[in-house]
Specification:
Shape: globular
Radius of gyration: 16 Å
CATH architecture: 3-Layer(aba) Sandwich
Low-confidence stretches: 1-43
Number of helices: 7
Mean pLDDT: 80
Strand order of the largest sheet: 6-5-7-8-9
Helix content: 25-40%
Length: about 200
C-alpha cells in the first residue's frame, strides 16, 4: 500500500479513487478510500435525483478519511442533503419524525461510515433501529422506503487486502456488510452496493 496520494482521477464530473489509491494521513498512517459509485458509474446519474448522505461517524471532527469523503461528495453533489448524526445526536436521542421526513424526500440514501469492529458505528445502528420502524419502513403497511436506492460508503483502518478469505481478517467486506442489503430488501429498497 502506498503512503502517498495517488488519486483522484477525473471521469467527467466524477472525482474517483482507485481501489489501490490511498490518502496519506497523520503520522504516515494510510486508509484506503474509494469514492467510485457502485458499478463504476459516475456521480452524473445521481445528480438528477434527491440524495441524502447519512454520516454515521461518531466523531467526525477527528476523522480525516470520512471528512474528506463528505467534502468531495458535498462538492460533487451540491443539491444533496447531509445528515451528520454525530452533530445532531451526540446523546443518541434520534428525532425519528425529522429523520423519516429526510428519508421520504430522498431518492438515493448513502450511508457513509467507518467500519468499527467489523460493523457500522453504534450511532448509525441506533439511527436505523429508531427510524426504520415496523409499519413505516417494513411490514404489511410499511412501504415508505420502497423503491429508494441505498448505498454503503465506508472506510477501514486496513488495506483492502486485509479483507480477503486468505487475509489477516479472514473475511470479505461483503460478509461484514451483509446487514445493509438485507435491510434494503426487507424495506423494498434497491441496494446499489458499497464503495
Amino acid at each position: 500500500m502506498s503512503s502517498g496520494r495517488t488519486g483522484p482521477k477525473e471521469r467527467g464530473i466524477c472525482s474517483t479513487w482507485n481501489r489501490t489509491s490511498t490518502l496519506s494521513l497523520r503520522q504516515s498512517r494510510s486508509i484506503d478510500v474509494c469514492l467510485l459509485f457502485p458499478g463504476g458509474s459516475s456521480l452524473k446519474r445521481y445528480l438528477m435525483k434527491k440524495v441524502l448522505v447519512v454520516s454515521g461517524h461518531t466523531d467526525l471532527k477527528n476523522s480525516v478519511a470520512n471528512s474528506t469523503i463528505l467534502g468531495i461528495l458535498k462538492e460533487k453533489l451540491p443539491g444533496a442533503e447531509f445528515d451528520l448524526l454525530d452533530s445532531l445526536y451526540p446523546d443518541f436521542r434520534i428525532d425519528v419524525k425529522a429523520e423519516q421526513e429526510k428519508l421520504l424526500n430522498a431518492d438515493v440514501i448513502v450511508l457513509q461510515f467507518p467500519i468499527y469492529w467489523f460493523s457500522m458505528p453504534s450511532l448509525l445502528e441506533r439511527w436505523i433501529e429508531d427510524v426504520f420502524l415496523h409499519g413505516w419502513a417494513y411490514g404489511s403497511t410499511g412501504d415508505r422506503l420502497k423503491g429508494k436506492v441505498l448505498i454503503d460508503s465506508y472506510t477501514t483502518g486496513s488495506p483492502e487486502t486485509a479483507y480477503q478469505k486468505n487475509g489477516p481478517v479472514g473475511h470479505t467486506m461483503d460478509e461484514f456488510l451483509i446487514k445493509t442489503p438485507v435491510i434494503a430488501g426487507f424495506c423494498g429498497m434497491k441496494y446499489a452496493g458499497h464503495v
